[in-house]
Amino acid sequence: MSYETLIVETPADGVTLIRLNRPEALNALNSHLLGDLSNALDAAASDETVRCIVLTGSERAFAAGADIKEMSDKSYAQMFALDFFTAAARKVEQFRKPIIAAVSGYALGGGCELAMLCDFIIASDTAKFGQPEINLGVVPGIGGTQRLTRFVGKAKAMDMILTARMMDAAEAERAGLVSRIVPADKVVEEAVAAAAKIASQSTLAVAMAKELVDAAYETTLTTGVALERRLFHSLFAFEDQKEGMAAFVEKRKPNFTGR
Q1: Alpha-carbon distance 231 to 235, whole Å?
Q2: Which residue in 195, 205, 164 sits closest to 56, CA to CA?
Q3: Is residue 127 a contact partner of residue 62, using CB atoms and an 8 Å limit?
Q4: Packing angle of the helix pair 239-249, 203-216 (nearest 10 deg)
Q5: ∠150-56-2 over CA atoms, to 5°?
Q6: pLDDT tens digits, residue range 138-158?
Q7: Quick check: is 155 catalytic?
Q8: Which is catalytic among the residues 110, 141, 143, 244?
């Protein structure tokens, strides 16, 4: 399936690479792009051969923000009725397969928020993150005030959101926003390699691990550990657990089947 604002590829077994493709607008997020992204994720969700997603932009910009031209003249009633951003954001947030953001260049405003919606971020050494909405007389609208605060802490989040300053890749890694930094010409390659590693694992264990890490942000420690223990126990009902442990004992590579 082809999309006007995305390029979709299969660079490795089990891996789908989705590239935002509005170069004339530095991949600014408009309704068309977000609709294409939702459709691409729906297709990936229903395709059993897809086990991990890499989401990226261009070397110059992952996404430089939401499309201001599309929003500037809208009224409160229109924004409320359209429920702007909500459907696409929920699609990424609730996607059951892992999504890795491979970020080069600018990830600002909605672009930063989209990256934070992914399961983790691999950044190039040119990446710059920011929530500059205050410069437009508004605030972040796709979870920026909430996720950035959880990821980097109150002080840095307040600083970035109130002053609109950008965080470079090195600071983002120190603060815990990104998982690793690689050269700009290697960021997609590194993300695809990570996705291929994930795709080679048991899809059951991957899905449960993703659910558990997400739950850590939403529950108490006691509740989270109890959930972890129950899902850990439940994996012993599946063939993949038997195969994985047998392969370890026999010193061979496991052949996971998702059963």
Answers
A1: 6
A2: 195
A3: yes
A4: 100
A5: 130
A6: 999 999 999 999 999 999 999
A7: no
A8: 110
